[in-house]
Amino acid sequence: MQKKVAITGMGIISSIGLSVEENFQSLISKKSGISNLENIQTRHASEIKVGEIKITNQELQQLLNLPEENTFTRTGLLGTYAAKKAVESAGISDINEFRTGLISSTSVAGMDFTEKHYKKYEEHPEYQKYIQSHDAGDSSNKIANYLGLKGFVTTISTACSSAANAIMLGASMIENGYLDRVIVGGTDALSKFTINGFKTLMILSDTYNTPFDNDRKGLNLGEAAAYLVLESDEIIKKGNKKVLAYVAGYGNANDAFHQTASSENGEGAYLAMKQAFEKASILPYQIDYINVHGTATPNNDLSEGRAMSRIFNNVPKFSSTKAFTGHTLAAAAAIEAVYSVLALQNNTIFPNLNFKTPMGELNIVPETEVVQTEINHVLSNSFGFGGNCSTLIFSKS
Amino acid sequence: MKNCYINGIGNVSIQSVDFDVFESEAAEIQILNKAQQPSYKDLIAPAMSRRMAKGVKMGIFAANKALFNAKMVDPQAVIVGTGLGCIEDSEKFLDAIIENDEQFLTPTAFIQSTHNTVAAQIALHLQCKAYNFTYVNGANSFESALFDAFMQLKHFNKENILIGGVDEIAPYTFSMYKMIGKVKQSGEEVNFKDPQTKGIALAEGATFFALSSNKTNNSYAEVLDVMLFNAFKDDEATEINTFLAKNNLSATDLDVVFFSVNADAHQQEFYNRINTVFNEIPQGYYQHISGSYDTASAFGLKVAAEIIQKQQLPKAVQYNNIEPNKIEKVLMINQFNNSDFSFVLLSKC
Amino acid sequence: MDALKQELKERIINALNLEDISIDDIQDNDPLFGDGLGLDSIDALELIVLLDKEYGIKLADPKQGKEIFQSVETMAQFVAANRTK
């Protein structure tokens, strides 16, 4: 069985950039993408800040050369854009040359359009074509069809850990010989549905989110899409491919505590991290940087901080990049995977913006500056509603 | 490499709770078919069930039945497939957003609308901290869950896994589907063998399986292979034969093949085309009993597993008029609207 | 005040879908959370919405709920003092 799985390509679109390079430049120049909401009509607009991608759906369609008549929702547009970039980045010309799959993830799916046209379909039959774009599977099929991919295609939806789980499934399928290469990641657009949903849970901040800060008030929602291309050793040798980094380990566990809140001692998070270490055959002290889930909600950061303190004798340098991008839900683990690879490639730790006051309950603080230091292994956490806890470990190539 | 056995099955469907495919007469399919809800009182505390979505209750019930059937206590993974998740709560939340102009909204409907709610509530109910995934990929959502479990039993050190498929009906979604012809219009005939009109007969249900790498005296069947894909690369017959050849079989080695025929005249063309491969094989169908929804193929797997265990293909599920001599190798073929394809190969164990 | 307490009990039962409970089952001073009625953090959020929708009281911080929702008695006192509807 193949031990580590190679990453040969990446594609990303987020509120801090339309390419891997743009995202990297924003991260090292501490340029956040959090702003006021512009593209969605909601009465809550003045009460929240978001990681909104300042590109319209029209513009995205043009960038993708889509015909005027199409049934893409914004989630599908963002996903297709990022997946296309990933495939190009991996130097793939014939998508079906080997056993290739797509494992995407989303939580919003087509809801961003459904909520606009809901109950209006009878007076406006021209909206009816979007009814079939509502479900999660449709966005993945759209991406696969756009790429011309014919093969294993599926969609994972486990809230905020979705893309980590997509990467996990993809890596296992390569390791066990079910696929030669796979495009893995996730996409979510901002929507009135999620803005209102998170508002009812009273975990949205009305200002810039402050992960791991004692006075944190909640999260900023964001939108994004990112995909990695994973390939088997055999295919890499054949194509003499450049390896960007490796997926060395992964773990998924369930907190089984509460539908939306994490347990006090972060049991699910602890188990997921433990599994990832076992899979990677590395020990906690070997981790040089943790890209934490760090949503800046009172509950998550405390729970995650506790879990980290349990599993690490000395918690390594860590930061949450959600102060840059907002919480991009299903796409979060995918964009943070890209940031983890960038950290490995550039020996750089990205700052945890907006941090002022250490949390009273913990004795760990995040990195607040860009740090240049040797990085061989990065751990990335993503925890979703329903107690879904996922951890990925990336290693230098 | 380990094996994958179906050791327990649990189900909530549009048929009665004690429906037996070998004995019972199935209720006639309507255009809209609601599930027959069992009593949840003994299983789920009122404090929990009061805010649970229909899909969550059906899922917990079916999951418990499957585990009990298999005498399985601690699954090492819980994997669920669903086409739309708890869509009724999505509708409730959207309705509230629009009617109240985004005010006075409450969290319960939003929380239940997240796609992995069923898997999460099952984990909570069982206090199961193991691997927990949810697949939401249209008509092969359930086969995605099955594939994941199959791979884990074969290659990871896991022995017991709980999987299931669940979908629920919601009123506005039903009317939207009628608007676009995905569901039949009122008064249209629901005919599975010779459909004349497009559209399906919508239903809901939950079917769960306790899978294990350990065979028991009560094992229903063995899962030999699972393949899912978005589109055929080659012509259909070639690809089907390639899949079978990979498992050292040819079409004539099959004892029964199940089609996911769904009374939609347009989709019937796919089954007519692949019939060339199977026109001498006993054929079965099941959506005339379960109704049609994204994860109805989980019900199909239940029927297939039961007929393998009992070595009997009841008339009620026979699609053509060929009787099997034995039931050792069974193939399930599923698709919807020329996409979301899957093949599941089963064997007597 | 008595009428308000009865009204609150009825509204709590409806909002939280407490199917098996009647107004007579809830005593004024019974704890609502933890051991008494057994409500949880999601119910707290639902009650916060109830205060806003029915009585025009907006709570900025969910943590305030802990004090206010101790019992029907404490809820009634808070509503009487702060209602704008």
From TrEMBL, chain C:
Q: Which UniProt keywords apply?
A: Phosphopantetheine, Phosphoprotein
Q: Domain Carrier spans what residues?
A: 4-83
Q: What InterPro entries does the record point to?
A: ACP-like_sf, PP-bd_ACP, Ppantetheine_attach_site
Q: Which residues form the signal peptide?
A: none
Domain of life of the source:
Bacteria
User: Is the keyword Phosphoprotein assigned to this protein?
Assistant: yes
In terms of SUPFAM superfamilies, this protein maps to:
ACP-like (SSF47336)
Checking PROSITE patterns in the record gives: CARRIER, PHOSPHOPANTETHEINE
- NCBIfam families listed in its UniProt record: PRK09184.1 (NF006617)
- Protein name as it appears in the record: Acyl carrier protein
> What organism, scientifically named, is this protein from?
Paenimyroides viscosum
